[in-house]
Amino acid sequence: MTLEEKVKQIVVDSLHAEASQVTPEASFVNDLGADSLDQAELMMNIEDAFKQYVGDNIPEEDAAKFETVGSVIEFLKSKGVPETL
Amino acid sequence: MKTALVTGSARGIGRAICEEFARSGVAGRIVACDVQKEWCEETVAALRAIPGVEAEAVAMDVSSEESVVAGVAEAAKLFGSLDIVVNNAGITRDGLLARMTADQWDAVLGVNLRGAFLVSREAAKIMIRARSGSIVNIASVVGLMGNAGQANYSASKGGLVALTKTTARELGGRGIRVNAVAPGFINSKMTEDLPDAVKQQMLSIVPLKKFGEVSDVAKAVAFLASDAASYVTGQVLSVNGGMLMP
Protein backbone atom coordinates (compact mmCIF):
# COMPACT_ATOMS: atom_id res chain seq x y z
CA MET A 1 0.00 0.00 0.00
CA THR A 2 1.24 3.50 -0.79
CA LEU A 3 1.24 6.37 1.68
CA GLU A 4 -1.39 8.11 -0.44
CA GLU A 5 -3.68 5.09 -0.37
CA LYS A 6 -3.28 4.76 3.39
CA VAL A 7 -4.09 8.43 4.04
CA LYS A 8 -7.10 8.24 1.71
CA GLN A 9 -8.37 5.22 3.58
CA ILE A 10 -8.02 7.02 6.93
CA VAL A 11 -9.84 10.05 5.52
CA VAL A 12 -12.68 7.89 4.21
CA ASP A 13 -13.02 6.16 7.58
CA SER A 14 -12.70 9.33 9.67
CA LEU A 15 -14.98 11.59 7.67
CA HIS A 16 -17.31 8.92 6.25
CA ALA A 17 -16.46 10.39 2.84
CA GLU A 18 -17.00 8.81 -0.56
CA ALA A 19 -13.71 7.24 -1.67
CA SER A 20 -14.07 8.76 -5.15
CA GLN A 21 -14.13 12.28 -3.65
CA VAL A 22 -10.97 11.80 -1.62
CA THR A 23 -8.35 13.18 -4.00
CA PRO A 24 -5.10 14.91 -2.99
CA GLU A 25 -6.69 18.27 -3.91
CA ALA A 26 -9.86 17.66 -1.90
CA SER A 27 -10.44 20.17 0.90
CA PHE A 28 -11.58 18.57 4.15
CA VAL A 29 -14.02 21.35 4.91
CA ASN A 30 -15.18 22.54 1.48
CA ASP A 31 -15.21 19.29 -0.47
CA LEU A 32 -15.57 16.58 2.14
CA GLY A 33 -17.85 18.42 4.55
CA ALA A 34 -15.69 17.94 7.62
CA ASP A 35 -16.52 19.85 10.80
CA SER A 36 -14.00 20.61 13.54
CA LEU A 37 -14.62 17.35 15.37
CA ASP A 38 -14.23 15.37 12.16
CA GLN A 39 -10.85 17.01 11.71
CA ALA A 40 -9.90 16.21 15.30
CA GLU A 41 -10.89 12.59 14.74
CA LEU A 42 -8.87 12.53 11.52
CA MET A 43 -5.80 13.79 13.40
CA MET A 44 -6.23 11.11 16.07
CA ASN A 45 -6.42 8.44 13.39
CA ILE A 46 -3.37 9.81 11.57
CA GLU A 47 -1.48 9.86 14.88
CA ASP A 48 -2.45 6.26 15.57
CA ALA A 49 -1.44 5.06 12.11
CA PHE A 50 1.87 6.92 11.93
CA LYS A 51 2.80 7.03 15.63
CA GLN A 52 6.39 5.98 14.98
CA TYR A 53 6.90 9.05 12.75
CA VAL A 54 4.73 11.76 14.30
CA GLY A 55 4.55 10.76 17.99
CA ASP A 56 1.38 10.77 20.06
CA ASN A 57 0.38 14.33 19.32
CA ILE A 58 0.72 16.26 16.08
CA PRO A 59 1.28 19.87 17.23
CA GLU A 60 -1.75 22.10 16.72
CA GLU A 61 0.29 24.52 14.57
CA ASP A 62 0.96 21.68 12.12
CA ALA A 63 -2.57 20.32 12.25
CA ALA A 64 -4.00 23.78 11.55
CA LYS A 65 -2.31 23.75 8.12
CA PHE A 66 -4.03 20.56 7.02
CA GLU A 67 -6.59 21.82 4.55
CA THR A 68 -6.41 19.14 1.91
CA VAL A 69 -5.71 15.43 1.72
CA GLY A 70 -2.47 16.31 -0.10
CA SER A 71 -1.29 18.59 2.72
CA VAL A 72 -1.46 15.67 5.14
CA ILE A 73 0.48 13.44 2.75
CA GLU A 74 3.17 16.13 2.35
CA PHE A 75 3.38 16.57 6.13
CA LEU A 76 3.84 12.84 6.65
CA LYS A 77 6.53 12.71 3.94
CA SER A 78 8.34 15.55 5.75
CA LYS A 79 8.29 13.40 8.88
CA GLY A 80 10.06 10.60 7.05
CA VAL A 81 7.10 8.37 6.19
CA PRO A 82 8.09 6.42 3.03
CA GLU A 83 5.86 6.61 -0.06
CA THR A 84 5.41 2.86 -0.02
CA LEU A 85 4.34 1.38 3.31
CA MET B 1 -23.92 -3.85 28.59
CA LYS B 2 -22.36 -0.47 29.37
CA THR B 3 -18.93 0.18 30.81
CA ALA B 4 -18.48 2.99 33.33
CA LEU B 5 -15.35 4.60 34.76
CA VAL B 6 -15.63 6.47 38.04
CA THR B 7 -12.74 8.48 39.50
CA GLY B 8 -12.29 8.76 43.25
CA SER B 9 -14.29 5.61 43.80
CA ALA B 10 -12.53 4.22 46.87
CA ARG B 11 -15.17 5.63 49.18
CA GLY B 12 -17.97 8.13 49.69
CA ILE B 13 -19.86 9.50 46.72
CA GLY B 14 -17.63 7.76 44.16
CA ARG B 15 -18.20 4.36 45.67
CA ALA B 16 -21.94 5.02 45.97
CA ILE B 17 -22.05 5.94 42.27
CA CYS B 18 -20.34 2.67 41.32
CA GLU B 19 -22.79 0.68 43.41
CA GLU B 20 -25.82 2.56 42.08
CA PHE B 21 -24.68 1.97 38.48
CA ALA B 22 -24.29 -1.73 39.20
CA ARG B 23 -27.53 -2.21 41.13
CA SER B 24 -29.68 -0.20 38.73
CA GLY B 25 -28.14 -1.77 35.63
CA VAL B 26 -27.03 1.60 34.24
CA ALA B 27 -23.60 -0.02 33.83
CA GLY B 28 -22.75 -3.67 34.21
CA ARG B 29 -19.01 -3.29 33.82
CA ILE B 30 -17.36 -0.86 36.18
CA VAL B 31 -13.83 0.47 36.38
CA ALA B 32 -13.23 1.89 39.85
CA CYS B 33 -10.36 4.38 39.87
CA ASP B 34 -8.44 6.00 42.68
CA VAL B 35 -4.91 7.17 43.36
CA GLN B 36 -3.91 3.69 44.45
CA LYS B 37 -5.50 0.57 43.07
CA GLU B 38 -5.63 -1.03 46.53
CA TRP B 39 -7.90 1.76 47.80
CA CYS B 40 -10.63 0.43 45.51
CA GLU B 41 -10.53 -3.13 46.82
CA GLU B 42 -13.66 -2.77 48.96
CA THR B 43 -15.57 -1.03 46.19
CA VAL B 44 -14.66 -3.69 43.66
CA ALA B 45 -15.55 -6.50 46.08
CA ALA B 46 -18.95 -4.94 46.76
CA LEU B 47 -19.59 -4.58 43.02
CA ARG B 48 -18.58 -8.14 42.19
CA ALA B 49 -21.03 -9.38 44.83
CA ILE B 50 -23.86 -8.07 42.63
CA PRO B 51 -24.95 -10.78 40.16
CA GLY B 52 -23.93 -10.14 36.55
CA VAL B 53 -21.65 -7.23 37.40
CA GLU B 54 -18.00 -7.14 36.39
CA ALA B 55 -15.64 -4.75 38.16
CA GLU B 56 -11.96 -3.87 38.02
CA ALA B 57 -9.78 -1.38 39.86
CA VAL B 58 -7.40 0.93 38.01
CA ALA B 59 -4.84 3.23 39.61
CA MET B 60 -5.39 6.82 38.54
CA ASP B 61 -4.04 10.02 40.05
CA VAL B 62 -6.14 12.52 38.11
CA SER B 63 -3.72 15.35 38.86
CA SER B 64 -1.09 13.53 36.78
CA GLU B 65 -1.48 13.67 33.01
CA GLU B 66 0.63 10.56 32.58
CA SER B 67 -1.47 8.63 35.09
CA VAL B 68 -4.74 9.69 33.46
CA VAL B 69 -3.60 8.84 29.92
CA ALA B 70 -2.43 5.40 31.06
CA GLY B 71 -5.43 4.81 33.34
CA VAL B 72 -8.13 5.64 30.79
CA ALA B 73 -6.37 3.54 28.15
CA GLU B 74 -6.18 0.61 30.57
CA ALA B 75 -9.83 1.03 31.54
CA ALA B 76 -10.97 1.04 27.91
CA LYS B 77 -8.90 -2.05 27.21
CA LEU B 78 -10.26 -4.01 30.18
CA PHE B 79 -13.79 -4.22 28.82
CA GLY B 80 -13.26 -3.08 25.24
CA SER B 81 -15.43 0.03 25.51
CA LEU B 82 -16.07 3.12 27.58
CA ASP B 83 -19.63 4.43 27.66
CA ILE B 84 -19.89 6.40 30.89
CA VAL B 85 -17.32 8.50 32.74
CA VAL B 86 -17.87 10.18 36.09
CA ASN B 87 -15.42 12.86 37.18
CA ASN B 88 -15.88 12.51 40.90
CA ALA B 89 -12.34 12.70 42.34
CA GLY B 90 -12.08 15.75 44.53
CA ILE B 91 -10.20 17.15 47.50
CA THR B 92 -10.48 20.12 49.85
CA ARG B 93 -7.76 22.34 51.32
CA ASP B 94 -9.90 24.93 53.05
CA GLY B 95 -8.71 28.31 54.26
CA LEU B 96 -9.65 31.96 54.10
CA LEU B 97 -8.52 33.70 50.95
CA ALA B 98 -6.20 36.04 52.85
CA ARG B 99 -4.44 33.04 54.39
CA MET B 100 -4.60 30.58 51.50
CA THR B 101 -1.30 29.41 50.08
CA ALA B 102 -0.74 29.00 46.37
CA ASP B 103 -0.04 25.33 47.08
CA GLN B 104 -3.51 24.94 48.62
CA TRP B 105 -4.99 26.53 45.52
CA ASP B 106 -2.96 24.46 43.08
CA ALA B 107 -3.63 21.17 44.86
CA VAL B 108 -7.41 21.59 44.76
CA LEU B 109 -7.59 22.97 41.22
CA GLY B 110 -5.15 20.27 40.09
CA VAL B 111 -7.37 17.42 41.21
CA ASN B 112 -10.88 18.82 40.95
CA LEU B 113 -10.69 20.79 37.71
CA ARG B 114 -7.51 19.87 35.83
CA GLY B 115 -8.17 16.22 36.68
CA ALA B 116 -11.66 16.36 35.23
CA PHE B 117 -10.31 18.05 32.10
CA LEU B 118 -7.68 15.36 31.59
CA VAL B 119 -10.06 12.46 32.13
CA SER B 120 -12.68 14.08 29.89
CA ARG B 121 -10.12 14.64 27.14
CA GLU B 122 -8.96 11.06 27.16
CA ALA B 123 -12.52 9.73 27.36
CA ALA B 124 -13.64 12.05 24.57
CA LYS B 125 -11.09 10.53 22.19
CA ILE B 126 -12.74 7.16 22.71
CA MET B 127 -16.34 8.42 22.73
CA ILE B 128 -15.92 10.57 19.59
CA ARG B 129 -14.96 7.44 17.68
CA ALA B 130 -17.80 5.46 19.24
CA ARG B 131 -20.19 8.34 18.51
CA SER B 132 -21.85 7.93 21.86
CA GLY B 133 -21.09 8.36 25.52
CA SER B 134 -22.10 10.12 28.69
CA ILE B 135 -19.92 12.15 31.03
CA VAL B 136 -21.07 13.33 34.45
CA ASN B 137 -19.04 15.82 36.45
CA ILE B 138 -19.50 16.11 40.19
CA ALA B 139 -19.69 19.84 40.89
CA SER B 140 -20.98 21.36 44.12
CA VAL B 141 -23.51 23.84 45.42
CA VAL B 142 -20.56 26.03 46.47
CA GLY B 143 -19.50 26.24 42.84
CA LEU B 144 -22.82 27.98 42.20
CA MET B 145 -23.10 30.17 45.31
CA GLY B 146 -19.58 30.44 46.76
CA ASN B 147 -18.54 29.56 50.29
CA ALA B 148 -16.32 31.47 52.68
CA GLY B 149 -13.16 29.48 53.35
CA GLN B 150 -13.31 27.58 50.07
CA ALA B 151 -11.98 29.94 47.40
CA ASN B 152 -10.05 27.08 45.82
CA TYR B 153 -12.76 24.43 46.10
CA SER B 154 -15.62 26.66 44.98
CA ALA B 155 -13.58 27.99 42.04
CA SER B 156 -12.79 24.43 40.98
CA LYS B 157 -16.45 23.45 41.16
CA GLY B 158 -17.62 26.58 39.34
CA GLY B 159 -15.02 25.73 36.73
CA LEU B 160 -16.47 22.25 36.44
CA VAL B 161 -19.87 23.73 35.64
CA ALA B 162 -18.35 25.74 32.79
CA LEU B 163 -16.33 22.72 31.64
CA THR B 164 -19.55 20.70 31.60
CA LYS B 165 -21.34 23.24 29.39
CA THR B 166 -18.44 23.68 26.98
CA THR B 167 -17.82 19.96 26.66
CA ALA B 168 -21.53 19.38 26.09
CA ARG B 169 -21.45 21.89 23.21
CA GLU B 170 -18.30 20.44 21.65
CA LEU B 171 -19.32 16.80 21.83
CA GLY B 172 -23.07 17.01 21.30
CA GLY B 173 -22.65 16.45 17.56
CA ARG B 174 -21.17 13.03 18.29
CA GLY B 175 -24.03 11.91 20.50
CA ILE B 176 -22.01 12.45 23.65
CA ARG B 177 -23.87 13.99 26.57
CA VAL B 178 -22.15 15.89 29.38
CA ASN B 179 -23.90 16.92 32.57
CA ALA B 180 -23.07 17.80 36.14
CA VAL B 181 -24.53 17.03 39.53
CA ALA B 182 -24.12 19.72 42.17
CA PRO B 183 -24.47 18.16 45.61
CA GLY B 184 -25.26 20.28 48.62
CA PHE B 185 -24.38 19.19 52.12
CA ILE B 186 -23.88 15.41 51.95
CA ASN B 187 -22.89 13.11 54.80
CA SER B 188 -19.45 11.85 53.76
CA LYS B 189 -15.83 11.83 54.82
CA MET B 190 -15.35 15.26 53.26
CA THR B 191 -17.99 16.87 55.45
CA GLU B 192 -17.72 14.89 58.68
CA ASP B 193 -14.70 16.86 59.82
CA LEU B 194 -16.52 20.20 59.69
CA PRO B 195 -17.19 21.88 63.08
CA ASP B 196 -20.68 21.29 64.50
CA ALA B 197 -21.41 25.01 64.46
CA VAL B 198 -20.79 25.11 60.71
CA LYS B 199 -23.00 22.06 60.17
CA GLN B 200 -25.85 23.61 62.18
CA GLN B 201 -25.54 26.85 60.25
CA MET B 202 -25.71 25.02 56.92
CA LEU B 203 -28.68 22.97 58.06
CA SER B 204 -30.59 26.16 58.85
CA ILE B 205 -30.64 27.09 55.16
CA VAL B 206 -31.73 23.66 53.88
CA PRO B 207 -35.51 23.55 53.33
CA LEU B 208 -35.56 19.75 53.70
CA LYS B 209 -33.91 20.18 57.13
CA LYS B 210 -31.47 17.33 56.75
CA PHE B 211 -28.20 16.52 55.10
CA GLY B 212 -28.17 14.37 52.00
CA GLU B 213 -26.73 10.89 51.69
CA VAL B 214 -24.21 9.71 49.14
CA SER B 215 -26.94 7.54 47.63
CA ASP B 216 -29.00 10.67 46.87
CA VAL B 217 -26.14 11.98 44.73
CA ALA B 218 -25.51 8.58 43.17
CA LYS B 219 -29.10 8.25 41.98
CA ALA B 220 -28.97 11.64 40.26
CA VAL B 221 -25.68 10.68 38.58
CA ALA B 222 -27.15 7.36 37.45
CA PHE B 223 -30.10 9.15 35.88
CA LEU B 224 -27.90 11.58 33.93
CA ALA B 225 -25.51 8.81 32.87
CA SER B 226 -28.32 6.57 31.67
CA ASP B 227 -30.40 6.53 28.52
CA ALA B 228 -33.28 7.85 30.61
CA ALA B 229 -31.59 11.24 30.16
CA SER B 230 -30.95 10.82 26.46
CA TYR B 231 -32.14 14.38 25.62
CA VAL B 232 -30.38 16.01 28.60
CA THR B 233 -26.99 17.64 28.08
CA GLY B 234 -25.09 20.62 29.46
CA GLN B 235 -27.23 20.65 32.59
CA VAL B 236 -26.42 20.97 36.26
CA LEU B 237 -28.71 18.94 38.49
CA SER B 238 -28.70 20.22 42.06
CA VAL B 239 -29.05 17.63 44.80
CA ASN B 240 -29.06 19.94 47.79
CA GLY B 241 -32.29 19.66 49.75
CA GLY B 242 -33.37 23.01 48.32
CA MET B 243 -30.43 24.87 49.85
CA LEU B 244 -29.96 26.75 46.60
CA MET B 245 -32.53 27.06 43.83
CA PRO B 246 -30.48 28.31 40.90
Please characterize this protein's 3D structure:
The complex is a heterodimer of chains A (85) and B (246). Chain A contains 5 helices and no strands. Chain A is globular, with a radius of gyration of 12 Å. The N and C termini of chain A lie close together (6 Å). Chain A has one domain (3-78): ACP-like (Non-ribosomal Peptide Synthetase Peptidyl Carrier Protein, Chain A), CATH 1.10.1200.10. In chain A, helix 1 (3-15) packs across helix 5 (69-78). The model of chain A has no long low-confidence stretch (mean pLDDT 93). By secondary structure, chain A is mostly helical. Chain B has 246 residues and is an alpha/beta fold. Chain B has one domain: NAD(P)-binding Rossmann-like Domain (Rossmann fold), CATH 3.40.50. Helices cover 46% and strands 15% of the residues of chain B. Chain B has a 7-stranded parallel β-sheet, sandwiched between helices. In chain B, strand 4 (84-87), helix 4 (102-130) and strand 5 form a beta-alpha-beta unit. In chain B, helix 1 (12-24) crosses helix 9.
Oligomeric category: heterodimer
| CATH-defined topology of chain B | Rossmann fold
Radius of gyration of chain B: 17 Å
**How do the helices and strands follow one another from N- to C-terminus of chain A?**
HHHHH
- Count of DSSP E strands of chain B? 7
CATH architecture of chain A: Orthogonal Bundle
Secondary structural class of chain A: mainly alpha
CATH fold category name of chain A: Non-ribosomal Peptide Synthetase Peptidyl Carrier Protein, Chain A
Looking at this protein, list some descriptive labels:
heterodimer, A: 85 residues, mainly alpha, Non-ribosomal Peptide Synthetase Peptidyl Carrier Protein, Chain A, 5 helices, 0% strand, globular, B: 246 residues, alpha/beta, Rossmann fold, 7-stranded parallel β-sheet
Summarize the structure.
The complex is a heterodimer of chains A (85) and B (246). Chain A has 85 residues and is an all-alpha fold.
